[in-house]
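Homework-ish question, so no full write-ups if that breaks the rules, but can someone show me the predicted structure for this set?
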Amino acid sequence: MTGAALKPRGASRTGWARAGADPVAAVRAAEALRDRGDILGAAAIMAELCRLFPHLPYGWRERAILRWRAGDGSGAAHDFARARAADPGNLLTLVQSVRQLAGAGRLDEAETCLSAFPATPDQAGRVERLDQLLAYLRQHPEAEAMRLAMAVRSSPRHLDTASVEARIGAALAGRQPFSLIRLGDGEGAWISDPDEEGGRFRSLYRRNRKRILRTWFGTDALIDRRDFLDLRERFLATIPAASVVGVTYPERIRHEYGIASPDGVPSCTNVLRHVAPLLHRGDTSFCTHDIHLDLHLSGALQRLTTAGHPIGLISCHPALAAALMRRPGIRVAAALLVPEEKRFAAIIGATGMPGAHYPDAFGRVTTRLRNRDWTGVLWLVAAGYLGKLYCHEIAARGGVAVDIGSIADAWSGKATRPGLADLARYRLDGGDQPGPAKP
Amino acid sequence: MTMDPATTRERVLHGLAARQPLDLAVAVVTAHPDDETIGLGGVLVHLRDLTLLQISDGAPLDPAFAANAGFPTRRAYAAARRGELVDALAVLVEGRLARQAFYEIPDGRLADHLAVVVERLVEDLICVDAVLTHPYEGGHFDHDAAAFAVQEACARLARQGSHAPARLEFTSYHQVNGTLRTGRFLEDPDLPEIVVPLTPEAARRKEAALACHRSQTPNLTLFGFGPERFRAAPTYDFSRPPPGSEIMYGREVWQSLSRTFAAVTGL
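A: Not a homework solution, just the prediction itself:
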């Protein structure tokens, strides 16, 4: 059922009429309208539904979600309370209620709400993770995360896009090793330590690790595997060794805390907690986590790749190296393939690479990287979490490694992330990109 | 920076001769399903970073071939040959491939799609250190077309200044003095070859893999379990017939093939 199915058939507001006849269909119609951005249309249906069927929890819940999205926090809390009253044992309502209250900074009310929930044994895990999320929010409130994000942003070591481009260019010109890595949600999930503070956030962290493992490899079987856990230590070592580290920024922190995201909050904040000490030691520089997009949109990647330096590429796109090579002024010195992230397999399409990135392909790529000296080569690395280790290996062998992430997908015409929806902006040929900015 | 092709070739040949695991990225480009088993079934297991590029689907356009093999359609025949290849690879490398790509050109029509094949090979071969394919020897026109396509793709990569893999060859078949020869190269004193006798385990593996290519059983009886041979691929002059060999598919077909080679080279 979609909103289109409820388009007027004689009546101008069929959704209202349908709410009286079929409440479930009305909710679905409202959801469809909401997803199309017609918040008012969806709200009209839900208001009528709640008037006609005040005993139905899902009407209140959906109305609460609409209000939450519209920024009406107190209205949302009121409607969530009605939904909980109508069905006290509904887990989905509980999760949404708790996150809404927590996102509004009302942690006491969120905890009260959670403690009143009559959890069944099969709901206990989810409830425990919610409890740990609230504990995390108390321990690491938005103000702390924001302070860390601002400390990074305002640090003299924070580089804007032009400065990052200049640093990469200087490393190539001077034949010096260089590594730019970006730490996003996935890296944050593996920076987070389940044993931290006596395992106080263990369930939450493990759930986030499992989720990201399924995204990367299609399974969470690696969650407790010794070799993969050992890899974490190598990953952590790449961070202080990197020339530039891309981390999350204050606007993203606000978003994650605003929705009390169970994965976004601890992942982003733990990345910041982990890198904050580097602001005062070593010589690592910082930039925004979205630097890959900025390097493309500013034309920096275009300029760097056509400056005459040989290019290396690690990606899951078999045709991308040749596509790069066909661009004027680009010489591809090496191209290594890794299996795609399984969550995006349908978007990326067949690559001919069976299995997951870890362990087999990881071992092959690492071996190939270790066989050569990469001095003077500009490596574009699009290989997720394991890609940070590749960047480290490349820099250790004299090369210049830039973590380009999903830009490789966009260059291949694959919109794997919401931010890449407008693929025309991310064409490999760069379109009408601006000239270099002054650092 | 990147390893030079001569060093790579030596490492591949040395690894194959010693039957030692080879961690270089090696592509095997074959014209038909079963060529991989015939040419290098005994050593594939040692290629730890193996990409298989299968150019034809093994089913000719003429439906009579499918019917003779017991299949109702060409597509069914092609599907069966794909399945046989998958089974054979499970035996030869226990399914452990870095990558496999099927170009799905109809059997016998490689020359008609040569420009596309060369471009796809450019895309795929830039990702490997070395490539093994058929020699140019007048045995089967698809084999000769594959030899041309690999040489041309590597030449394009090199001309552009990008990485081009080292080229090597495995044996297929050809005819000398009216006699069919399998498992041997046309002799060329300038092209030393390595000879890798099959160990009992390799012979067992190869026999089992050949048995997987069920639809080809009558043809495969021509190929024994002698040593496998490999050598560096020369730079062939495809405007001339292969030296020292008879053209099994006829001079007229070769002339047509040669014109296609010239046209693709000029692109």
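Now go work out the reasoning yourself. Hint: The first strand of chain A starts at residue 178 and ends at 182.
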